[in-house]
Amino acid sequence: MDNKKYDTYIFDLDGTLLATLNDLAASCNYALRTHGMAERTLDEVRRFVGNGVRKLMERAIPDGDSNPEFDETYATFRKHYLEHSLDTTQPYPGVMDMLARLKASGKGIAVVSNKFYAATQELCRHFFGEYVEVAIGEREDIRKKPAPDTVIEALKQLGATREGSVYIGDSDVDVMTAKNSGMPCISVLWGFRDRDFLVEHGATTFVTRPDQIF
To answer: Which of 18, 41, 161, 204 is deepest in the core (most CB within 10 A)?
Structure first.
């Protein structure tokens, strides 16, 4: 992929830069177990992620947010995850080298996530502090993906425009986010969704390794 083609790289976080599934599943099952609900398998949690942690728990909890115990169970999940989001989470192989090369080439780098804001900030500071200039998570004053708001805010903070920018993610939500933002999308195949699923949801450009992004 021609690195000269883009000046700014906007990344999704979970399933794109970070392998977060095990920690998400652990916190999900801790909350379910704490409130006497059946736990979920890792494959189930994999299918549930991609639209933010609230949606994850809506899918994991019987009857979703209409369950009378939803709010308390979701609060248990949030508290546990904020304390345990670094237990097993690590960058995918090759991600750090890819970010280093982009940074050395003078590219703008941002992360936009549907993960809640505090966790997005902490994870990006911990793993990517020297490379990621802007990290934006879910917050009340901005619509989450696939709305373009977080991408627009990231571009604003970087002093960049969508021309010369590319969006990189692992899910159908990311494909829609890029489309809604008026940007090309690179879909990674090491994350939470497979190629057939992504093709079905409109993805057209794929990479199998981080070094193919530049």
So the answer is: 18
User: CA nearest 45: which of 65, 71, 73, 26?
Assistant: 26
> Is 23 an active-site residue?
no
For position 115, what pLDDT does the model report?
A: 86
Three-class secondary structure of residue 113 per DSSP: strand
Q: Tokens representing 53?
A: 């942690």
| Cβ atoms 145, 120 nearer than 8 A | no
On whether the CB atoms of residues 185 and 16 are closer than 8 A, the answer is no
Q: Which residues pair with 142 in a beta bridge?
A: 139
Name the residue type at position 132: V
Cα–Cα distance for residue pair 62/32, rounded to 1 Å: 10
Q: Say which residues have a Cβ less than 8 Å from residue 35's Cβ, sequence separation at least 6.
A: 69, 72, 73, 76
φ/ψ bin of 210: left (φ > 0), alpha (ψ from -120 to 50), beta (otherwise): alpha
Q: What is the pTM of this model?
A: 0.91
Determine which one of 7, 12, 65, 87 is catalytic: 12
